[in-house]
Specification:
Layout (H helix, E strand, L loop, with lengths): L16 H14 L4 H24 L2 H14 L8 H5 L3 H6 L2 H8 L5 H9 L3 E3 L2 E2 L15 E3 L3
Helix pairs in contact: 2-3, 6-7
Length: about 150
């Protein structure tokens, strides 16, 4: 049996009032179900920023190009491609690329929670593939291929 490792970290100060308010605001804005979804977005961001810092220190241009190409395909880096843009990313940038948020912003769903419901019930197709995960990070090329099942 394999040992499953946690992908998220708990906050250092669990009862920080300003942190709780910010998280509650993000939960309402993006229609998230629990704070674990915010923490997983923070973990993605933390890993990306750590990779960028290592690449800045080592100055490996091949790995730098691959990281920047990956991030531009995902839609995180826009405009000029350099590692300073990776370090300037925010949690909202990660949450904006989720399938749930994109469906809401495209106008397919009226609210973020309705977008989540459509995804979980299997009504959303990306390039004729059913996606049932609201946390799916949508590629830029897939963004135009999002459709509802039956329409």
């Amino acid at each position: 049996m394999r040992n499953i490792r946690k992908k998220t970290k708990k906050p250092r100060v669990p009862w920080n009032k300003t942190l709780i308010k910010e998280e509650r605001k993000l939960l309402n804005e993006y229609g998230l179900r629990r704070k674990k979804e915010i923490r997983s977005a923070q973990a993605i961001l933390r890993n990306l920023r750590q990779r960028a810092r290592v690449l800045i220190a080592n100055q490996n241009e091949e790995k730098e190009k691959t990281l920047l190409n990956k991030l531009s395909k995902l839609g995180f880096v826009k405009g000029t491609k350099d590692l300073d843009n990776v370090l300037a990313l925010d949690v909202k940038d990660i949450l904006d690329r989720r399938l749930q948020t994109i469906i809401f912003k495209k106008g397919i769903a009226h609210t973020p929670k309705q977008a989540r419901q459509l995804i979980i019930h299997g009504k959303v197709l990306i390039d004729n593939r059913k996606i049932i995960f609201p946390s799916y990070i949508v590629l830029l090329e897939e963004e135009g291929k999002i459709s509802l099942h039956g329409k």
